[in-house]
């Protein structure tokens, strides 16, 4: 579909990639179904191993060289490279597209003392699907809010409460460690260039048997992650920066070219309040509108104020139950040869060796298992982002 003439060289074969992964002692069968999210982490963890050390086996960046060799045993596999592997490893270390950081914040409910912020690395966000409410569709925002929602952690030693208790004792008597309840809050400390979101569709019945959740989770072509981003004390989110909002325009100019929708809410004659988030509208905010809104809603979110904006690039869907099934993929068509840096608006449905065209509506109506978003930057946020992410 992306080429006028099909040749043998343009047919992709994953067997060479599986051969390399088996050399890393991964047990991957060519005849059994492999969980897509698990395979994703197998690949990323293998690349992590190669990043941190000098590879002793074929580098994953050189898997294409295996296609040029025939009838060789695993011990005879070699790779060819135009330079030493060290620059490749260093480049991958600084340009890991899926690497992000989670922040974990703990605050004592008794003395309100805040523990040091903890940072953890992630390659994908694994989101549980909250229970559905009748009459209200499930959205990706619901899953993200559930992921970052605060939770109480009981019986935690609070050093600050212990110090306060010790100051109140006489003759320097030793006091026991004070245990209190903390509030734990997750945020995204650093967002990656490529964001992989895993929707957990595995659940367990009252009898302990695994079940698959088939609910449709609404997601949009563009994803705003600003409200989930962790900001240091004293640093305000960029959308509240008056310099950025001095001359707001109705269009969003993306560095990757056209493709972002026009933000209707900032145009004359429309409400200024941004009530839409990732294509959804909170029911609690609907009464604030001066006039009733038609349904379906003919407006799109105001993307021009978003610093952390992502564009949907691929969706993995699982058909079947927890015991068997089949994975299919929706992905954007490759860019044209004339403009390799552009982003295509044509979607493809891929099932093994079967490929057909698909519409965006079909993609957004699918029961997603994995979502792949890629970061886009508005021109007014490019320079600021380079400084804030350091």
From TrEMBL:
It catalyses: Thiol-dependent hydrolysis of ester, thioester, amide, peptide and isopeptide bonds formed by the C-terminal Gly of ubiquitin (a 76-residue protein attached to proteins as an intracellular targeting signal). CDD domains: Peptidase_C19F. The keyword Protease applies. Keywords: Hydrolase, Protease, Thiol protease, Ubl conjugation pathway. It comes from the Eukaryota. GO terms for molecular function: cysteine-type deubiquitinase activity. Its EC number is 3.4.19.12. Belongs to the peptidase C19 family. PANTHER family: UBIQUITIN CARBOXYL-TERMINAL HYDROLASE, UBIQUITIN CARBOXYL-TERMINAL HYDROLASE 30. This is Ubiquitin carboxyl-terminal hydrolase 30.
